[in-house]
């Protein structure tokens, strides 16, 4: 019996999920999941690690779809609700999934393609009412879930994790962040990424806590839920905190103080999936009384590094290795380095098994002695890791220097007229690369003014040489700026 099934039986009639006016117990979760598993199996005794895609709205149907796939012996493949049909086709072709579960809202998008491709489409609200049947015994080393990378530099790759790997990720977080059955967390994140699936839903349900869903993002709706006084854990990406701060700044002083009273009562607030600007961390702390816990992870490794639950949460740093996770910094020859920047490499049971159907890519992602190469460059200061950026997008090689785009962004954000920014390296014959900045302004400001300001704050070789002004930065579903979309904007 897998961990989620054991735990659901143990927590029984305790509330597991809340959505609007509806609440569902752990017993309801497991009963519905077993029925979905029976529908998926049809006349088979075991799906034997066949991928099953699902495009399901957050809430009971989402969790039951995932658990039902697992109970039937399949591999769960969550699909983003915002994906266009072409992106969905890519995932279905890449995984070879022959079954697709969807919410009724997506039936019209998927029906014709699934019929033409011989894919069985199961629609929530139209599923056959089959009786429960005997389910297969699932080994923890089986494949459990395929999540797709963002594909910013190449086609997205399917990241396969086992049941053992997922439970290891959960156990590591439960220990580090002190989850308990008293936790009541709000899910506002997309559920085709590890942040929402593992950190918010899976870890909370692992200990018998409650997960509440918000049908649609709204800063006002989030704060209304905060005011009820039931929530005590909140996890989001920096762009969400940015929007919540913007909302708070429009409220009266009395309203802000009232909301701060409720937020101060939370036991934990976390930021992740993209770098947290120091300015956002400081503003949020002033408005909420909560010092955000920033952590570092990725699809292939789950969470690997975190600021401490108890102890200093250092701004601009992602903390120290989590339980069960080995971390080292390595040079370009994959040799460990100490006292200097290097690529973050990770080892342990939380690391994924393979890129689905891509043996060569899998082999290239690991060193010969089994360390996963993240592609992220960091340095260690007093045991705290500090991310300098990605090898491919955030480390700019200019005039013999290796510059961190993230460091330059932090300084640029301190300009009083800058609302947000992103720094990239542009190819240059003389310098190799030159620093360029895309900027969102609060009020009109010239590039000359920004240049003068930056030269007063850092050496000239780090100062952006080109600027472009935008109304907003291009971002993916998790709030990360898609830097490859920025580079063409500088070409005149």
From TrEMBL:
What SUPFAM superfamilies has UniProt attached to this entry? Acetyl-CoA synthetase-like (SSF56801)
* Keyword list, A-Z: Ligase
Q: Which CDD domains match?
A: MCS
The family database entries (PROSITE patterns) matched by this protein are listed as: AMP_BINDING
- An example Pfam family from this entry, by short name, is AMP-binding_C
What are the BP-aspect GO terms? fatty acid metabolic process
Please give the InterPro entries that the UniProt record associates with this protein: AMP-bd_C, AMP-bd_C_sf, AMP-binding_CS, AMP-dep_synth/lig_dom, ANL_N_sf
Q: Provide the AMP-binding enzyme C-terminal domain boundaries.
A: 407-480
* Gene3D superfamilies referenced in this protein's UniProt entry, alphabetically: 3.30.300.30, N-terminal domain of ligase-like
- Keyword ATP-binding among record annotations: no
**AMP-dependent synthetase/ligase domain ranges (all copies):** 4-356
Q: Name one GO molecular function term.
A: medium-chain fatty acid-CoA ligase activity
Q: Which family does it belong to?
A: Belongs to the ATP-dependent AMP-binding enzyme family.
Q: What is this protein called?
A: Long-chain fatty acid--CoA ligase
Q: Which organism is it from?
A: Aquirufa rosea
């Amino acid at each position: 019996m897998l961990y989620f099934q054991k735990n659901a039986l143990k927590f029984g009639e305790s509330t597991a999920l809340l959505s609007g006016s509806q609440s569902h117990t752990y017993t309801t979760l497991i009963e519905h999941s077993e029925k979905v598993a029976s529908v998926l199996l049809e006349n088979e005794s075991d799906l034997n690690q066949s991928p099953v895609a699902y495009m399901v709205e957050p809430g009971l149907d989402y969790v039951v779809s995932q658990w039902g796939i697992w109970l039937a012996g399949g591999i769960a493949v969550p699909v983003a609700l915002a994906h266009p049909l072409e992106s969905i086709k890519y995932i279905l072709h890449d995984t070879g999934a022959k079954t697709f579960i969807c919410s009724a809202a997506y039936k019209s998008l998927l029906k014709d393609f699934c019929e033409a491709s011989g894919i069985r489409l199961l629609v929530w609200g139209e599923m056959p009412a089959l009786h429960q049947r005997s389910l297969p015994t699932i080994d923890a080393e089986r494949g459990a879930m395929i999540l797709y990378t963002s594909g910013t530099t190449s086609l997205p790759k399917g990241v396969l994790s086992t049941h053992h790997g997922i439970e290891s990720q959960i156990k590591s977080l439960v220990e580090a962040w002190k989850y308990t059955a008293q936790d009541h967390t709000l899910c506002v994140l997309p559920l085709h990424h590890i942040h929402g699936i593992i950190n918010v839903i899976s870890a909370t349900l692992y200990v018998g806590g409650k997960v509440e869903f918000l049908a649609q993002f709204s800063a006002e709706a989030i704060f209304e839920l905060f005011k009820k006084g039931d929530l005590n854990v909140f996890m989001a990406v920096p762009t969400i905190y940015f929007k919540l701060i913007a909302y708070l700044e429009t409220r009266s002083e009395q309203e802000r103080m009232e909301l701060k009273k409720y937020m101060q009562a939370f036991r934990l607030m976390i930021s992740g999936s993209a770098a947290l600007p120091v300015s956002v961390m400081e503003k949020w702390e002033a408005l909420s009384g909560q010092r955000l816990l920033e952590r570092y992870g990725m699809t292939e490794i789950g969470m690997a590094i975190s600021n401490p639950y108890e102890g200093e949460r250092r701004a601009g740093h992602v903390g120290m290795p989590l339980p069960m996770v080995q971390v080292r910094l390595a040079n370009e020859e994959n040799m460990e380095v100490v006292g200097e920047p290097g690529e973050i490499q990770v080892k342990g049971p939380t690391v994924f098994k393979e890129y689905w159907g891509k043996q060569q890519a899998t082999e290239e992602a690991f060193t010969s002695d089994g360390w996963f190469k993240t592609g992220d460059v960091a340095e260690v200061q007093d045991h705290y890791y500090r991310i300098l950026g990605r090898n491919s997008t955030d480390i700019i090689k200019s005039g013999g220097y290796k510059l961190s785009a993230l460091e330059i962004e932090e300084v640029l954000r301190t300009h009083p007229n800058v609302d947000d920014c992103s720094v990239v390296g542009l190819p240059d014959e003389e310098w190799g690369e030159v620093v360029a900045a895309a900027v969102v302004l609060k009020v009109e400001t010239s590039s000359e003014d920004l240049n003068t300001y930056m030269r007063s704050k850092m050496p000239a070789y780090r100062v952006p040489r080109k600027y472009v002004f935008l109304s907003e930065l291009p971002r993916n579903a998790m709030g990360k700026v898609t830097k490859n979309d920025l580079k063409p904007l500088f070409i005149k």
